[in-house]
Structures are given as structure tokens and as C-alpha cells.
Automatic annotation (TrEMBL):
The gene is HAL. One of its GO terms (molecular function) is histidine ammonia-lyase activity. This is Histidine ammonia-lyase. Keywords: Histidine metabolism, Lyase. GO terms for biological process: L-histidine catabolic process to glutamate and formamide; L-histidine catabolic process to glutamate and formate. InterPro entries: Aromatic_Lyase, Fumarase/histidase_N, HutH, L-Aspartase-like, Phe/His_NH3-lyase_AS. It catalyses: L-histidine = trans-urocanate + NH4(+). It holds the Pfam family Lyase_aromatic. Its EC number is 4.3.1.3.
Length: 603
């Protein structure tokens, strides 16, 4: 009998299926039914029929059609997740129509019946309230620079929808539905990457986003490519949005430019941080280092979470009792007492990078799930209140910190590359090539790594320590979070590239230690690299090799190869991590691989 493992609100449920012709929708409803059955309060649902959901795979996060038969859509024992779907008509969702004509005629409400910024005291006639919103979007669309790539623009739009759906922005359900239809059609406005100061929100980029929604400016879709927004919308059967009072402001006021780039930065930082441990472990093997510095007791007396985890990963990859290493055995009785800091202190240096990422991830996760509009519409109180949730200081500071923390992975990696290339330190041929002099080997690859590290040092200067007064001193303190996010991504890309060079250098070093072999997981990493980059016999065009190794890291291929060995070692050496059921290991491993998206408390 086929069975499936379904994730519902943080819980995993095994759902057997007697009839494989049943649908994906049935599987979702049955999982929700079982979830409700185990909850004294029905898990917050009146009934199964009260749940509105989509179903997606845990691996790859692909959405499934609820009408597809299970035997066609899924394999036996596949892992899926039930995801909340927005229900229209929430009682607390207050749009401009619900504000009431009394509000529009008799009250002064910022952004609804007044101008903006310095013009906040200028009252606008009711007859011109819609014109006010269009003027706002057009005038604020003043960004410069290259447009966001489609993936980043799509994330920007998704995060803005998430804010609007919370019901505090004063946007109508009709308009919100139109925005979601544009998103689902992948119609993405032209959004220049420069122009935000990060308060009052990311006004310029979000205005460009809104400009496309009203059918002006440029837009891109897979169907049309770049074209006039009005044409792109029409090509997908969509109409430009007609803004009602408050809706222009609702579309452009928030920190979504900072956080959309910030989400990507956190995910890429997480990926490269864990792969940095694998690359460094391979270098340690090539340089014939000792694993004593990763002893459990050393890290138990300084139990920073990241440090402990990095030391564990090194042990899981290098433990000769678990994974015999001929290289390690060859120098077991050498006279070396301890290794250089770049090898010995990896848990401490890599560890704090991991803890930094976790800290920043928490802030960004809170930020993307917050209402960051102004003014805020509180339906339960019948009030519209001006506040400062649009200010980007939280994500700006966090992303500055992320750049500083992750950069150190490149700084220490560059020093390990130096040790690999320097014959007096590595006991290997100079620059890891035979016939040195005739061949230069990794000489300039190391220079490239040094250049990237040096550039990062300038990029790591915090942008959020700067502030310039804007809007005639009305908006007199800003976060500069947009630049914090953009430069964090640049820093992380440089870190990836430096570690790609180290990965190539370490694999090249292995060539000079043959026929000796390293541990099984590290041999798998070596085989992965050799599947895209051949050994360096004599000088050749190196840039494509670096790019190929970089691609392995960006796509997390190095982690995918090593992770099963790390998790198996964890189960065998940490009792509390052992599974309570045969599926628990696979389940946990899949959960960790699924883009590290935080579990939602909501269905």
C-alpha cells in the first residue's frame, strides 16, 4: 500500500493510501484531518473544509495540482508539504472602500487625504484622491541603474503581496487579487536596482514595481520578454490596476527591496558557509593536518553553537576510524605538534560565520512577515495611524553584519590557498603544477583570490552607519539598507569564488599525493570536481575551471555529495539525533535541503 509523509504546521504525518487513483487534494485533506484529530482545539480549524491549501514537494518545492492522481504525481513514500492559501474576504482586511466616505471627507489621514513627506500638511480634495495615488507612483519611479533580474523582481513582488495580504495597508481585495494575478503570470516590472535610502521604505524601487502594475513603464514576462507594461499585461489577459485612495502608497511603502535581496543573501550565505567546511577539510587533508583540534571536548568547553557544529562536520569528514584515510595514515607519526591557525581555528572562524547567518536569518524572517506600511489601517480599532514600520534599520544593520561575518570565510580561505601554493608550507610543487617556471599553475588564481578578499574589505564597511536627511528634513534619518543588501550579495559572491579557487587547488594537491586516498566523503567531493574540471597537467585557460567550481558551490553540489555522510555520522555519534522511525532521517535530511525556509506556524 503506498504511503506518503505530509508536513502540516510543523508536524509530519504518515498517510497511507489504499487507492492510488485518489488525488493530491485528497492527500492534503486527509493530512489536515489527521492533524486536526490530534489537536484538542482542532488546530484552529472549524473543520477540514475550513482549510484552504496547496500541496508541494519537499524536495524542490514544486507545487502539485490538487486534481492529479497520486500514482501519477508522486512516488511511494514521497515527502510533501501542505501550504496555506490566502482566503479572500477576511473580515480584518480593510481597503479604501471600507475606510468609508466619512473618513475621506471629514478627516485628515496621511497619504489618503494629504500629500506625502514635506507635503503631509497639504490636504487634497476628495475629487483628486485617485489622481494623488497615480501621481505618487509616477513621481517616485526615479531609480537608476540596471534592472533587477526576473528572479529578484519576482521575490520583490511576492514579499510586497505578503505585506498587503496582512490587511493593514488599506488596499482593496480587488486590487490585491489583481496584483496576485500579475505575479502568477510572471509579469515583472522594470525595477532599477539603485535609488532607495531604506526609509520611508524602498520608495523608488517599489514605485517602479507599482508603475508596471498600472500599465506604465516596462515589464518582462517569459511570454513577451521586455516590452511596454500595458502590452505585457494585455498579452496575459490582464488589465492595468486602477488605483483607489491609499493604494498607490500601499504599493510602495515598505522594506521589500532590502529584504528580497536579503533573503537571497541569507540563503546563499548559508549554502557557502556549510560548504566552506567541506572545502577546508579537503585542504587540511592535502596539507597533512591533524584532526585533534576538532576534538569534542575542546568545543564542549566553549560551546558556541556554530563552532560546535563546524567542529562536528570536520570530524564527520575526517574521522579515520569512521572513514579510513591513507593520507592521514601516512603522517600519523610525524613530528608536527599543531597546525597553522587557518586549519586549526576553522571551527572558531567558520563557526561565528554560521552563527551570524542564523542571527541575520531570524531578523530577515521577522521582517518579511511584518506589516511595514505607513499609515497602518487597524480595522478592529477603526483607526488609521502613522508610524515608522517602513524604516529599514533592522534589515540594513543585519545585512551589514552578514557581509562582515561571511567575508571571513574568504579571508581564511585565501590564506589556505597560500599554504597550498607555497612549497615551503605545503611540501607540494610550487603553485601545484609540474615543471614550474615553464608552467605557472595556480600562481595568478591565488592573486585573484587575494583581489576578491581585498575588495570585500571595502565592501564590508557598513552602509547603515550613514544617513542623509531627505524630503526637506521630514525624513531626516534613513537606513541605506538597499546598498547594505546589494553589497552583501557582492561579498557573498566573492566568498563563493574564493572558495571555488580553494576547492580547485585542494583537488589539484590531491594529484600529488596519489596513489594515497583521502576519506570516502572527501573522495566523493574530489570525484565531483573532476567530473567538471580535469587535473592540471600543464598551463591552460583557467577562468572556465574557476567558473565550473563556482557553479558547483552555487548549486550546492558539494554539500549534496558530502551531506549524507555528515548526517549518518551525526546519527551514529549523537544519540539524541537518532531517528525514532525508519523515515525520520530521510525526513530531516529533506527538510534541511529544502532551501532552509523557516517553518510557518500557519497552514
Amino acid at each position: 500500500m503506498p504511503r506518503y509523509t505530509v508536513h502540516v504546521r510543523g508536524e509530519w504525518l504518515a498517510v497511507p493510501c489504499q487507492d492510488a487513483q485518489l488525488t493530491v487534494g485528497w492527500l492534503g485533506r486527509e493530512a489536515v484531518r489527521r492533524y486536526i484529530k490530534n489537536k484538542p482545539d482542532n488546530g484552529g480549524f472549524a473543520s477540514v473544509d475550513d482549510a484552504r491549501f496547496l500541496v508541494r514537494r519537499c524536495k524542490g518545492l514544486g507545487l502539485l495540482d490538487n486534481e492529479d492522481p497520486l500514482d501519477v504525481a508522486l512516488e511511494d513514500n514521497e515527502f510533501v508539504e501542505v501550504v496555506h492559501r490566502l482566503r479572500w474576504g477576511r473580515s480584518d482586511h480593510r481597503g479604501p472602500g471600507q475606510l468609508g466616505q466619512g473618513t475621506l471627507q471629514n478627516q485628515v489621514v496621511y497619504g489618503i487625504t494629504t500629500g506625502f513627506g514635506k507635503f503631509a500638511r497639504t490636504v487634497i480634495p476628495v475629487s483628486k484622491l485617485e489622481e494623488l495615488q497615480f501621481n505618487l507612483v509616477r513621481s517616485h519611479s526615479s531609480g537608476v541603474g540596471k534592472p533587477l533580474i526576473p528572479e529578484r523582481c519576482r521575490m520583490l513582488l511576492a514579499l510586497r503581496i505578503n505585506v498587503l495580504a496582512k490587511g493593514y495597508s488599506g488596499i482593496s481585495l480587488e486590487t490585491l487579487k489583481q496584483v496576485i494575478e500579475v505575479f502568477n503570470a510572471s509579469c515583472l516590472p522594470y525595477v532599477p536596482e539603485k535609488g532607495t535610502v531604506g526609509a520611508s521604505g524602498d520608495l523608488a524601487p517599489l514605485s517602479h514595481l507599482a508603475l508596471g502594475l498600472i500599465g506604465e513603464g516596462k515589464m518582462w514576462s517569459p511570454k513577451s520578454g521586455w516590452a511596454d507594461a500595458k502590452y505585457v499585461l494585455a498579452a496575459h489577459g490582464l488589465k492595468p490596476i486602477v488605483l483607489k485612495p491609499k493604494e498607490g502608497l500601499a504599493l510602495i511603502n515598505g522594506t521589500q527591496m532590502i529584504t528580497s535581496l536579503g533573503c537571497e543573501a541569507v540563503e546563499r550565505a548559508s549554502a557557502i558557509a556549510r560548504q566552506a567546511d567541506i572545502v577546508a577539510a579537503l585542504t587540511l587533508e592535502v596539507l597533512k593536518g591533524t584532526t585533534k583540534a576538532f576534538d569534542t571536548d575542546i568545543h564542549a568547553v566553549r560551546p558556541h553553537r556554530g563552532q560546535v557544529e563546524v567542529a562536528f562536520r570536520f570530524r564527520s569528514l575526517l574521522d579515520s576510524d569512521h572513514h579510513p584515510s591513507e593520507i592521514a595514515e601516512s603522517h600519523r607519526f610525524c613530528d608536527r605538534v599543531q597546525d597553522a591557525y587557518t586549519l586549526r581555528c576553522c571551527p572558531q572562524v567558520h563557526g561565528v560565520a554560521n552563527d551570524t547567518i542564523a542571527f541575520v536569518k531570524n531578523i530577515i524572517t521577522t521582517e518579511i512577515n511584518s506589516a511595514t506600511d505607513n499609515p497602518m489601517v487597524f480595522a478592529s480599532r477603526g483607526e488609521t495611524i502613522s508610524g515608522g514600520n517602513f524604516h529599514g534599520e533592522y534589515p540594513a544593520k543585519a545585512l551589514d553584519y552578514l557581509a562582515i561575518g561571511v567575508h571571513e570565510l574568504a579571508a581564511i580561505s585565501e590564506r589556505r590557498i597560500e599554504r597550498l601554493c607555497n612549497p615551503s608550507l605545503s611540501e607540494l610543487p610550487a603553485f601545484l603544477v609540474a615543471e614550474g617556471g615553464l608552467n605557472s599553475g595556480f600562481m595568478i588564481a591565488h592573486c585573484t583570490a587575494a583581489a576578491l578578499v581585498s575588495e570585500n574589505k571595502a565592501l564590508c564597511h557598513p552602509s547603515s552607519v550613514d544617513s542623509l536627511s531627505t524630503s526637506a528634513a521630514t525624513e531626516d534619518h534613513v537606513s541605506m539598507g538597499g546598498w547594505a543588501a546589494r553589497k552583501a550579495l557582492r561579498v557573498i559572491e566573492h566568498v563563493e569564488q574564493v572558495l571555488a579557487i580553494e576547492l580547485l587547488a585542494a583537488c589539484q594537491g590531491i594529484e600529488f599525493l596519489r596513489p594515497l586516498k583521502t576519506t570516502t566523503p572527501l573522495e566523493k567531493v574530489y570525484d565531483l570536481v573532476r567530473s567538471v574540471v580535469r587535473p592540471w597537467i600543464k598551463d591552460r585557460f583557467m577562468a572556465p575551471d574557476i567558473e565550473a567550481a563556482h557553479r558547483l558551490l552555487v548549486e550546492q553540489k558539494v554539500w549534496e555529495v558530502a551531506a549524507p555522510y555528515i548526517e549518518k555520522y551525526r546519527m551514529e555519534h549523537i544519540p539524541e539525533s537518532r531517528p525514532v522511525s525508519p523515515t525520520a532521517f530521510s525526513l530531516e535530511f529533506l527538510h534541511r535541503k529544502s532551501s532552509n525556509i523557516p517553518e510557518s506556524e500557519d497552514l
